Amino acid sequence: MLRLYFSPGSCSQASHIALEEAGAVYEAERIDFAGQQQRSEEFLRFNPKGRVPALVTERGIITESPAILTYIGQRFAGTPVSLPQDPFEFARIQSFNAYLCSTVHVAHAHKRRGSRWADDPAVIEAMTLKVASNMSDCFELIETTMFTGPWVMGETYSIADPYLLTFTGWLEGDGVDPRRFPKVYAHSQRMAERLAVQKVLSTAG
Ligand SMILES: N[C@@H](CCC(=O)N[C@@H](CS)C(=O)NCC(=O)O)C(=O)O
After folding, report:
1. Quick one: DSSP state of residue 196?
2. Which one, of 79, 80, 62, lies nearest residue 71 by Cα?
3. Please, what is the Cα angle at 88 between 182 and 189, to 5 degrees?
4. Fewer beta carbons within 10 Å, N or C terminal of the chain?
5. C-beta of 165 in contact with ligand 1 (< 6 A)
6. pLDDT tens by residue, 80-94
7. How far is the CA of 193 from the centre of ligand 1 (A)?
8. Which domains does the chain have, with CATH numbers?
9. pTM of the shown model
């Protein structure tokens, strides 16, 4: 059976919602960040990266949200998160998710995880101060050039939707009012109506 290692409110939320949307049979195992469980020997045995999400499959572990989301989409064809056959449409999804993973997530991580990039407390503080403006710039770009509506890719729901929702959920904590981005904000309200989202948010925070 599939097993998802997650932490509430973290980027693992996207994979968690995707599993629910797919109607997958899976176990969800919470990793306690406050207790630094992601750095425990037991967890590092599964995932030497010490991060979530990590999806354990019958054939081994998968890490990195875009890879996990794509795996769920491919494995559960015929569900709301299944992938388009058309190469261009699939590339659009990959492009959007890669932007979230490689740019937006990194901008957000400078708030609490600055020690990944610097030791000097003044430098870490300076990076923290950039988080609101960087996240704001990223979401401006998403709102004006990437988001199609009503779902990220247009009329069809996809693995990009739970991924975007997760990042939208980080905005307030990063000092950015999500209402500044009306299309993205309306998307988060639309997502909140989905049963899969409600289930994950009520059980996993
Ligand atoms: N590129 C990875 C990033 C994974 C990642 O950084 N996860 C965070 C939670 S959002 C984490 O596990 N942080 C724990 C830590 O840094 O100790 C992905 O997209 O899955």
Report:
1. H
2. 62
3. 20
4. N
5. no
6. 999 999 999 999 999
7. 27
8. 2-81+200-204 (3.40.30.10), 87-194 (1.20.1050.10)
9. 0.96
